Amino acid sequence: MTVPPISGTTRLYAVLGDPVTQVKAPGLVNPLFAAEGVDAVLVPVHVRPDRLGEVVAGLTAMTNVDGLLVTVPHKVAVCRYADRLAPAALIAGSANALRREPDGGWLADNFDGVGFVRGLRAAGHDPAGRYVALVGAGGAGGAIAAALADAGVAQLRISDTDQVRRDDLVSRSNRRRPGLAVGVDEHSGSDVHLAVNATPLGLRDDDPLPFSPGSLPRDCVVADIIMVPAQTRLLREAEAAGRPVHPGIHMLRFQLDSYRAFFGF
Predict the structure, then answer these.
(1) Catalytic residue at 75?
(2) How far apart are CA 52 and CA 79, in angstroms?
(3) Fewer beta carbons under 10 A from the terminal one: N or C of the chain?
(4) pLDDT tens per residue, range 42-73
């Protein structure tokens, strides 16, 4: 595989986050560019929340920048800088990809939920008909909730430290599928089949657990969306308690085909 040299014709893509040390997208997308002979490169860009508008304005003003990927904590805020939102971004209230359109405008979409559900199914954890506990109602949580609704889960129990944000996601989920979602303060019960951490808790090893895996049924799948570390404290403790686990890298890997279609490479 020959990697094209970066030159004046190279098209640019950036992944925006705070932090960015954990991002895996460049290591997955750049080999795709090389394999397809695409003269492009994806680089991480560390952006503090209070500078997001400046950075997006600067990047989108550059005529050789074709797209942006977005990670924590910018997925909700970045929507305000897009000219148009695709249906998935509208429903989720967040975006993780933006592309330049032929008219010069920017379209935002969200593939987190699609990637998460595809990853679950590939690992043998089809969520259809299951009772799901979702912790985190932010950008990724909103996308995952929408995709789980489409996947046919029986019930979605949503918790978040921000009760307003939680209740908003419950309301949006129930507009999508009446009676699907309920808001809860904590997760327990003998009928939970899948418990999902959609918060940033786990990026650091001293983060508190988003929930106690030992309080869940023994056959409950514990899923995390954190990419680094690959085995978060939550997943380690869930494994130690005998619960099946599903790491975060699957969510990204199963978005790659969506990225290729969205960006056209």
Answers:
(1) yes
(2) 11
(3) N
(4) 999 999 999 999 999 999 999 999 999 999 99
Domain boundaries, the chain: 11-110, 113-251
* Residues facing 13 on adjacent strands: 42, 67
Q: What H or E segment, with its residue span, contains residue 97?
A: strand 97-100
- The CATH number fitting domain 11-110, selected from 3.30.1490.20, 3.40.50.10860, 3.10.100.10, 3.40.50.620: 3.40.50.10860
Residue for token digits 């990419």? 227
Please check whether the two domains, 11-110 and 113-251, share a CATH topology.
yes
Fold assignment, 113-251:
Rossmann fold (3.40.50)
Find the catalytic residue in 75, 130, 165, 172. 75
Residue count of the chain, please give it.
Answer: 265
Specify the pTM: 0.88
pLDDT digits 0-9 by tens, 79-122: 999 999 998 898 888 999 999 999 999 999 999 999 999 999 99
- Measure Cα distances from 119 to 48, 53, 115, 144, 161 in Å: 30, 32, 6, 12, 27
